[in-house]
Amino acid sequence: MIRTLLARAGLVAAAAGVATLLTAAPAAAHGADAPDGTDYRTRTTGVTPQRPGLEVRVVEAGARLELTNDTGRAVEVIGYSGEPYLRVGPDGVFENSRSPATYLNRTIAGDTALPAEADPAAPPTWRRIADGTTVRWHDQRALWQESAPPAEVRAAPNREHRVRDWAVPLRDGADPVMINGTLDWVPPPDAYTWWAVTIVGLLAVGALGLLAAAAPAGARALSALGALLVAGGVVAVVYPVGRELDAGAQGLGPVALGLLSGQIWALLTGVGAIAAGWYALARRPAADFAVALAGACLALFAGAANAAVFARSIAPVPWSPEIARGMVALVLITGTGATAAGVLRLHAAAKTPTPTRT
Q1: DSSP string covering 93-158, please?
Q2: pLDDT tens digits, residue range 229-257?
Q3: Beta strands of 203-356 (E only): which ranges?
């Protein structure tokens, strides 16, 4: 029985890995738009001159700017060569297919090859890309594009540095408007401390699997594992919701769409961990198997997938980086610890001789 369960667990894990590879392209595209973490803090300082109804904010951990235009007039975002790039107003959002920025801003790296039609000197050709009055885009003027940090950062990496002030020009009718902002280097945290805490925690949780399952202490250990999985599963669901909110999603529908399109594995493993936790709390048959499998998926898809925040100062969530790191650590501790404990309990059950009937 135990060998059959373990074999099924291996098949499920393999299927999950294959599915991950098959869905890697859209997931990577979403990840490129919303990085797992960064050491550069992008902020907006305002729009000058002020325009009532025109709001700008930074989303996706600084990867994009978001402009909402409720002025009742069309406003244009100006590209890198002074050409019209985006237009947003009462009739929707449009991009200029002749603007090089239309193509360069498709990825955060700005490495898209320019087509022959890209010509900043040509009259704009507007293409409708969305309804509403909000547009989000990568803008190289608000980002640090080099692989190495600035010289002043390399000289003193443990201090915060102002990298530059930046500006993105707009056009409101015939009037020039400017989005102003700042780009700062923020020293990253000590990743070794977070990993050390995580490892100690997961070893403590895994040790619950050493308690004999048939003893009262073993039953209480199973309940503790179930409660931890429920807690870890809730955190695993909340974290991707926070990522979608940080990416600019507003309202239940946009958040749900973002989760289903870019955070599906974290969402599913979180829900699965909650279900497995309740299964263990009820002490149902094969609860050890459910704990081990749900824990492995939780650690892989919701923990390790977000562990970059241990080494990054800016997290892609709308709360403090310390809370984000604590949430990821909890998911890793719960998931990996539950996996170890479940496997130990399964191994002990496999070695227990089956009583013979007389």
Answers
A1: EEEETT-HHHHHTTSTT--PPPPTT--TTSPP-EEEEESSSEEEE--GGGS---SSPPHHHHH-TT
A2: 999 999 999 999 999 999 888 888 889 88
A3: none
CB 199 within 8 A of CB 310: no
Peptide bond before residue 150 is cis, with ω within 30 degrees of 0: no
Output the pTM of the full model: 0.82
Contact 211, 324 (CB under 8 A): no
Exposure letters 259-288 (e unless 16+ CB within 10 A, then b)? beebbbbbbbbbebbbebbbbbbeeeeebb
For residue range 93-149, list pLDDT tens digits in order: 999 999 999 999 999 988 899 999 999 999 999 999 999 999 999 999 999 989 899
CA-to-CA separations, 206 to 84, 146, 291, 313, in angstroms, rounded: 58, 42, 11, 30
Distance separating alpha carbons of residues 236 and 231, to the nearest angstrom: 9
33 pLDDT band, cuts 50/70/90, is low
What local confidence, expressed as pLDDT, does residue 187 receive? 97
Whether the CB-CB separation of 213 and 345 falls below 8 Å is answered with yes
